[in-house]
Amino acid sequence: MTTRFRFLRLAALPLAVGAAWPAASQTLLAQAATAPQLRDTVVTATRVERPLADLVADVSIVDRDTIERSGAVGVMDVLARLPGVEISRNGGQGSSGSVFLRGAESRFTAVYIDGVRVDSQTTGGAMWEQIPLAQIDRIEVLRGPAAAVYGSDAIGGVIQLFTKKGEGKPAPYAQVGLGSHGTRTAQAGVSGGAGMVDYSLGISHERSDGFNARPIPTANPDDDGYRRTTGNARVGLQIDARHRIEGTLLASNLESQYDSSRTADDRNHHQLRTGGLSWAARWTDTYTTRLQATTSRSEYRTTPSFYETETTLRNYLLQNEWRLGAHLFTAALERREDELRNPAAFAGATELHGERSQNALALGYGVAVGAHSLQANLRRDDDSEFGGKSTGSLAYGLALAPQWRATVSAGTSFRAPTLYQRFSEYGVSTLQPESGRNIEAGLRWTEGDSSVGVVAYRNRVRNLINFGAPGNCASTLGCYESIGRAEYSGVTLSGSHRMAGVNLRGSIDWQDPRDLDTGRQLARRAKRHASLGADTELAGWTWGAEVQASGRRFNEAANTNVLGGYGLVNLYASTRVARDFTVLARVDNLGDKRYETARTYGTEGRTLYVGLKWMPQ
Question: At residue 150, what are phi and psi to the nearest 5 degrees?
């Protein structure tokens, strides 16, 4: 079957689901987070706060209540419960991992914390293990390319994480927890507002003895634990009704163990620092601006086998918005500066120090009138190394009936090669940007708190950067090359429903992430995966259950080593034990399933976590 006919078959599925919905409405489950409601507002889709009802985008929202009920320790574990998201990790918490959005490479997801860009200029993409979940209050996930809004990186989508914003009277909190493998967690903070000032401050510490992350004869058989200490601050100054200044800071230190030999006590050392300062001004009832300067630094170091890399990113953004009735016009000027420093790993080696910048102009137009919604974006990026790159997107939504909405969209995207891919001993300075073209169609039904949606998509990427044979670089082991082609196509089915006092939710993904040159399935991604859940209130307790399932995957591009499929059952319960105290208990992997998301790396078996939270009412 040709690629064109395969996508046409996928795109027809929304219509088929619409025809079958009356019979299926009582059994279909929705996404594994709180299903977005039309009254919600979203920033990530267009970089401007917009009502969800006006957007033509595939978005998931995770609020703080959902994060706390999950009992998860890491950001990746929360994301794994969402539609279109898979993860792979080399061991337990604190180990390196990847997040695949709609099957796309991990580096194809742009990541922001409070509007601050986070990325690594080595292999590309955020180092997910560095991001502390304890400081996160809300997560927005945009599936589908957004380079016409954000520039380089957003080929597969955008994930933005937000820390808490203070308001009202002072609201302190504290939480402690104990879990399997000697896991201990503690966090505390306070948020509030008085007069012109609002604030939110938080600190946390967590540690675990871990488990043997690599149970093979050639690796150290010790347990591989981790410890993390983090803190954040978010302070706003409302000068008057039209002007606001806000500053954000986040710091995270992580040390984790890993196994690369039989006897060495191998350790990772991570530091993540982010900071941002913004000024939002409403000059008239129709015209507003936002001026923002941000910076982030991601540092990774290993011992006793020495390796070190440090990425520093600086962004400057001037965002303009004009609202004329139902019409929204945006224009943005942005400058991005990337810097990579890799010290010499041994005597005689050469230190790598590279820099580059990108200047961009982005234009946008959105309108929602009656049954029709339209969003158009165009962006031009001028890179100091390879020149200019233009991207665009166009999306249209039509309300077929009060409960039904159909959407179609198309967009182009790109990711610039990292400084390491161009200038390290494995690098090739002539590498071209990876470029994508995406089309998708969707259908959604919503009534009250119940909803169901289906999206079919196809995203083709050319100039895919892979590690190839020696030749055009200094290394005799191999060189990076930008000659690959890949296609990420699939269907995501999601929805939510309340029945007999039980909230049902879940998602199912059918996808075909593959190498167009070899026809093989891309590494560590399944063709089918699902997340289902239910919760209810009974006898003063909140009771919940989740099921996570994944089909088989291959560990590498050659498709020689199979990673078997798996299914996990998780249970959780919470209740208020006093006016200001809540207890949470969670069991993950109830069946003690043994499985791998990366070959030779173990995963946690059955685990128990119990937490106690204090928050004055």
Answer: -105, -15
The span from the first CA to the last CA of the chain, in angstroms, equals 61
pLDDT(340) > 90: yes
| Residues 6 or more apart in contact with residue 512 via CB below 8 angstroms | 6, 103, 487, 488, 489, 490, 521, 527
pLDDT digits (tens, 9 = 90+) for 20-54: 443 333 333 333 344 455 457 889 989 998 887 77
| 20 Cβ contact partners less than 8 Å away, ≥ 6 residues apart | none
Comparing CA positions, the residue from 384, 359, 383, 464 lying closest to residue 421 is 464
Strand partners, 510: 491, 528
> What CA dihedral angle connects 63, 540, 533 and 453, to 10 degrees?
-60
Which of 253, 258, 268 is CA-nearest to residue 306? 268
Q: Give the span between the Cα atoms of 311 and 126, in whole angstroms.
A: 11
Cis bond upstream, residue 304 (ω within 30) = yes
| pLDDT digits 0-9 by tens, 384-433 | 988 899 999 999 999 999 999 999 999 999 999 999 999 999 999 999 99
Residue 19: CB atoms within 10 A of its CB come to 9
- Cβ-contact 253, 229 below 8 angstroms: yes
